[in-house]
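Researcher: I'm comparing several assemblies side by side, and this is the next one on my list. It has 566 residues spread over two chains. Same procedure as the others: predict the full complex and return the structure.
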Amino acid sequence: MGRKISLPMLILAIGGFFYMLLPIVVVVLAGLTAGDFLTFPPKGLSSRWVIAFLKSDSYLSAFFFSFKLALMTMIVSTILGTAAALFLSRSRFFGRNAMRAFFLSPVVLPGVVIGFALFAFYISTDIGLTRTIWGLWIGHILYSTPYVIGTVGAALASYDVSLDEAARSLGASPWRTFRKVTFPNISQGIQAGSIFAFIVSFGQFEVSLFLSAPNTEPLPIAMYNSLRYKFDPSAAAAGIFAITLVIASVLLTNRLVNIGKLLDRK
Amino acid sequence: MNASQFHRAQPSARYQRQTKLLLVIPLAIFFIGFFVIPVGLLFTSSFNPQVIGQVAVTSELTLDNYIRFFSRSNYLMAAWRSVLLATIVSLVTLIIAYPMAFVIAKTENAARNTFLLILVLAAMQLDMVIRIYGMMVIFGDNGLINQMLVALGLTSPDAPIQFMYNFLGVVLGLVQFSMPFMILTLVGVIRGINPSLEEAARSLGASPQRTFLRVTLPASMPGILSGSLLVFALSISSYIVPALMGGFRVGVLPIHIFQQVAEGARFQFGATIAVILFLISAGAVAVYLKVGARNSGGLA
């Protein structure tokens, strides 16, 4: 690491990483503990809670519900977000930054408020979205699309537009230009964006709070409902599967795009 | 290439603009239909008289809900508590996250750097409920820390230290939630600091500490500012952390919204609290965008 990082700084940073990661390690240990709950020192490892999770109706169905919802969200967010990112990177007009900020805003605005607004909207318009997977889907698309716009936007920022112009001047239609020239060049950015969209939807809590119902319960809501009353280690076992999914998605993202570069732009 | 072909290959600027517009129209319609209109209706309903169980927006306008909010001390206290909480969380997160961001930014080994960033991204993307589960195991009354303290004979089993179900618990949880966002904001800025500035200070005889305090820290001020605003906006909006780490005993605005609507069916008053939370959060975001724009303007 060299002399650029002083020892006190390094110690503080290690402490910080410890605080950031310890809860996640603890969930894995709690899901694998042999005891009824995690104790110090631990009682040894067992797969009993993982098996309990795999046999439980509520967590397993919530897990698959979240998976399905995240896939549905990913598909729409990727299409809408990629198209919008193309528009934002190719157009120069007054208010372009405002439009970009508008499309990115759901990420930082209160999810409870957006969820509540959609909930009231579904009830008062009565268009059959109240407490359905479709209503949740819409809320999740709002929250996942900004990540696609950000990631694809970063890929487009380093893309040479003159390639497109060359294709167009040689007579290719806009659609053909996109398919044969632009898309192959930014496809890794699109894939990374869609993984982001998937995982953001999979972990979404605040928006789902108002929009879910007992038969349409994503995993975070199901875990929350059980954690309020009892401390169930099979929830931690469900957490192990979610952690695996997140780590796999981040590793995959890293293979597709340079994570460090993604950061420089933000 | 003959003239007509050339003409076809170079479509008019207007045609190009129209084709480009087709790209953004689907998302624009989606956002107007499911974001602008619902939030607009929510704003409107906060000006409707409170009728329990009624959701639909009416044309009857009143300021009663806002008068109620600003004249009841428990709602004002909730707003104050939310702002105080988010401010404390921003400061604590900054102090913990800065050294982490500094180490990541200064790690030149590419593989090591990527590894650290992967850890941060994985922590950020993991569902908060799962992370809170881990925090409850650590900080609970029978949690790992209290078990350790009892084992060491420092506390008695009947009087555990209460880390959770109070203001402290919410801070502990929100800091854990916010750290990755702060780190990612800071890494970009610290990395953007011209290394020759630090080298110049060192070669002029400044100690590493002095170089850090006089050069690096001031130069990372834009990141500190935008990271803190981002964390403020994110933590004031959190429902799950105050609910589980505070055990519903720390009444912040998101908790009040859910209680008014889900338990009391008071949609109009719930909407009023929602509007107030939305405006506080949007205010922080607006400043964040301004700071961010100035940053990139300065760097570019």
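Model: For your comparison table: Chain A touches chain B through 102 residues (CB under 8 Å).
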